[in-house]
Amino acid sequence: MKTEQELKEIVKQKYGEIAMQGKEENMASCCGAGGCSTEVYNIMSEDYSTLEGYNADADLGLGCGLPTQFAQIKAGDVVVDLGSGAGNDCFIARHEVGETGKVIGIDFTPQMIERARLNAEIRGFNNVEFRQGDIEHMPISANIADVIVSNCVLNLVPNKAGVFQDIYRVLKPGGHFSISDVVLVGELPSGLQKDAEMYAGCVAGAIQKDEYMQLIQHTGFTNVQIQKEKPIIIPNDILSHYLSAQEIEEFNSGKTGIFSISVFAQKPMEEKTCQPGSGCC
Predict the structure, then answer these.
(1) CA 48: distance to chain centroid?
(2) What mean pLDDT is predicted for residues 225-234?
(3) What pLDDT, on the 0 to 100 scale, is given for residue 194?
(4) For residues 127, 128, 133 and 136, what is the CA-based torsion angle, rounded to 10 degrees?
(5) 0.85 surpassed by pTM
(6) 192: closest CA among 155, 228, 218?
(7) What are the C-alpha distances in Å from 135 to residues 77, 83, 200, 264?
(8) Res 173 pLDDT > 70
(9) Is 186 left (phi over 0), alpha (psi -120 to 50) or beta?
(10) What is the pLDDT of residues 87-126, one digit of tens each?
């Protein structure tokens, strides 16, 4: 089993390559990273094109939901996007916050940061900025964000508890997040669990849905709710790279479910206890 740092380097390399690709190439595979599928449909991402603020050049087709649609962003808000890629969710959030708000995108892949900054500069978006860094140690001060969004990113991070702790730190009291992510119901076959390419492709890094929701609760968030849920189907021609024919048949029998969920939760207005990662305990 690879270490956390090795997995992060795999993701950084893969998404550095994806930053150089177009949307059509990325949408042919799982989060832009697996073998190319011959079945003509996108595995995870949803259609952003009807949302206000959408910029096609910033859409790499890497998401698994529409978190900004559910994020209840208001004019003047400070919004942080975790794993901001080429800037797609940031630019939609910018439309919602208006000229009086601010949007900060965080990504640890240099090529993505470069592409996002160029997209923002071309459009004259002066209240959108992109910072390179890990999302479990965000380069942002505490109690800054009104809203945090993220789209199909936490499943790529080995230390998911650390990410939720840092989300809690960065949100203002009363602030909230809306995060789209991939979760499991049932155990993945070992071939998918162990393959580094499938980790970078979002599936092998996913954890159980119940465990995911418990992490949010245990961090101290309130009003935790699933805003949207949909099943994810991996085509057999992608599975064949990692599983035998018999394993594919067993995998498709319904014992394991892979889902995209969009989750909402709030940071309490008043902290009654010391929270993990806050430095007070």
Answers:
(1) 15
(2) 89
(3) 66
(4) 90
(5) no
(6) 155
(7) 20, 7, 16, 18
(8) yes
(9) left
(10) 889 999 999 999 999 999 999 888 889 999 999 999 999 9
Report angle CA 257, 262, 263 to the nearest 5 degrees. Answer: 110
Does domain 4-266 fall under CATH 3.40.50.150? My reply is: yes
For every residue of 74-100, DSSP letters joined together read -TT-EEEEET-TTSHHHHHHHHHH-TT
142 residue type, one letter: A
Q: How long, in residues, is the chain?
A: 281
Q: What Å distances lie between residue 263 and 106, 151, 182, 213, CA to CA? A: 19, 11, 11, 9
CB 236 within 8 A of CB 165: no
Secondary structure of residue 238 in the 3-state scheme: helix
Q: Give dist(CA 255, CA 134) in Å, integer.
A: 34
Identify which of 64, 90, 34 has the alpha carbon closest to the alpha carbon of residue 181. 64
The beta strand positions in the chain, using DSSP E, are 78-82, 102-107, 128-132, 145-151, 171-185, 207-208, 222-231, 257-266
Q: How is residue 103 written in tokens?
A: 């949007």
- Note whether 181 and 254 are within 8 A (CB): no
Q: b/e map of 215-236 (b: 16 or more CB within 10 Å)?
A: bbeebbbeeeeebbeeebebbb
Q: DSSP letters of 154-180?
A: GGG-S-HHHHHHHHHHHEEEEEEEEEE
pLDDT at 12: 60
What is the C-alpha separation between 209 and 188, in angstroms, rounded? 13
